[in-house]
Amino acid sequence: MNGVPEEAAAIDKLWLEAKSARLSGNLAASTALLRQALAIAPDNPQILRQLAIQLRHSGALNEALALLEPALPQAVEHPDLALALADCLLLQSGPRAALSALDYVLRQRGDRPVELLLGMARLHYMQHDFAQAEAALREVVVQPAARAEAWALLSAIAIELGRDEEAGNASRLALKMDPKQVIALGTKGQLAAEAGNSDAARQFYSRALALEPDNARIHYMLGLLDLSLGNYAAGWRGFAWRHRVTPRIAADFSYGLPAWQPAETAPQGRLLIWGEQGIGDEIMFAGMVSGLLVREVRPLLLTDPRLAPLFSRSLPGIDVAARHPGFAPRSEGITRQIAAGDLGALLRPDRAAFPVRSRYLAADPARVRHFRAKYAELARGNKLIGIAWRSSNAAQGPYKSLALGDFVPLLRQPGCCFINLQYGNNAAEIAALRETHGLVLHDDDEVDPLRSLEDQAAQIAALDCVVSTSNSAVHLAGALGVPTWLLLPHRGRGVQWYWGQAGAETPWYSSLRLLRSAASETLAVQLQRRMAEFPAWLADFRAVTAN
Q: Domain map of the chain by residue range?
């Protein structure tokens, strides 16, 4: 500690007493002692940093920032002080503000300390700016003071970007340097899960949670593993941790309302149920909402505007509202809220709790008649088959998508008329299909799923069947009860948890047949191989429909 001998002695004494009080669990006493020490040495970076950290942990974030922000120039010479400021700014304003502080400190210095580069990398990773995070980490791992955390973060980035071999190598290096690297254990668990080695994945996740019992991301990944295995009760518990993952992995439309726990009795007022993820997830989870009516809950389902008319028609007794900036839940008499995905713990605790039903959504009958009449002229007695081939999901889409050209073996099947269900602008692909192969895929410019899912629901309901990779069209077809071939990879991140790890059926939709690729078989090769089964499948579901 700095200062004249008397002051130094007093500061040292207060510092040691504060440390002793903190270690004994008396944070308030420790903080009071640090305040005294700071009054004697207001520019002491060690005291300033520790006091700010303790204030932050005790909930006095604004006071911590009031101490640290004026000390930013001083933080240039003291990286730990800069990192403490970044931690507070992260909580108050988010990663950008924290990055701005660290960037200022790095620009003022003549070197690039490992701890500051790691801090920058963590923040870039939180923002899913993987390129910037990786650039900072690459600087770290070539320095003599390279840390296991850098390799652990590199493993997490590599797996996000689909570089699985690199993720495995980086996680092994991290764990060799430090067997307690939780991020690396999470990477190993995810790689094992994607390889179909559920036991190994569980072991890695369990090791990670033994080190960090409150690690939300690990709990969430373990939950996804359990859900994929059909261990629903445990899976929903892990799935609920997604709300605590930083940064959020889904939207938050809770509006600051108190959460309703499924174990509680019905709330006194109305219950807000909000969709949080993509269109497919909203459709799937909406299938649970009607189960609340027998529990005397008065729900209001808040959903994507494109789904609101469809849900309003299909879910009797459920009030439905479209999300919009002016939505005010308290004016609707709402007192509690729950994310739609959290209903699973109450309504789908095991496989037996899934209802046996052909469908739960109903398209507009007039629109269905319109499309049937329209497509009958195109089909001329042939079967109407809808196809979709691509997912726009940035993380998983590449692993579960095909090119339209991969559907050529299907499009050559006799007795069929094919309708485009793929969202987005596909004109170039459809034109190339006709020019290269002489095959026709009818694209209805009356239907734009990005604008109206009412139209696409009616379009799908007018068809005989659907063949698709995993995207929102499959969820819509399943909820409408339309017979569907769903093409899935063998395993890995292209197979979402709700499709399970094996089997041709899913409890979420009875009309879906899940077609899983063989090991080392691409989706395109699987589709070509399945053509031998296609006529029999058409005949089979026709018989079921006729009866």
A: 5-187, 270-353, 365-546
| Amino acid identity for residue 452 in this structure | S
Give SS3 for 242. helix
Q: What is the structure's pLDDT at 248?
A: 80
Q: What is the signed CA dihedral for 68, 69, 71, 76, rounded to 10 degrees?
A: 100
Helices 27-40 and 5-23 cross at an angle (nearest 10°) of 170
Closest to 254 (Cα-Cα) out of 236, 279, 278, 271: 271
- Distance, in Å, from the CA atom of 354 to the CA atom of 278, rounded to the nearest integer, reads 22
Same fold, 5-187 and 365-546: no
Quote the pTM value: 0.90
The pLDDT of residue 543 is 43
Q: What is the mean pLDDT of residues 130-146?
A: 92
Residue with tokens 């109305």: 270
Contacts by residues 540-545 (CB-CB < 8 Å, ≥ 24 positions apart): 541/465, 541/483, 542/464, 544/483, 545/483
CB count in 10 Å sphere of residue 128: 13
* Token duo for residue 117: 């580069």
Rounded to whole angstroms, how far apart are CA atoms 227 and 198? 12
Q: For domain 5-187, which architecture applies?
A: Alpha Horseshoe (1.25)
Q: What is the pLDDT of residues 22-51, one digit of tens each?
A: 999 999 999 999 999 999 999 899 999 999
**Residues 361, 314 contacting (CB under 8 angstroms):** yes
pLDDT on residue 547: 28
**Looking at domain 270-353, which of 2.40.50, 2.70.220, 3.40.50, 3.30.10 is its CATH number?**
3.40.50
The predicted structure's pLDDT at residue 268? 82
How are the residues of the chain apportioned to helix, strand and coil, as percentages rounded to the nearest 5? 55, 10, 35
Q: Which fold has domain 365-546?
A: Rossmann fold (3.40.50)
Q: What is the DSSP letter of 269?
A: S
pLDDT, average across residues 162-176: 95
Give the pLDDT confidence score for residue 143 in this predicted structure.
87
CA pair distance 499, 334, nearest whole angstrom? 34
| Beta-sheet pairing, 484-488 with 270-274 | unpaired
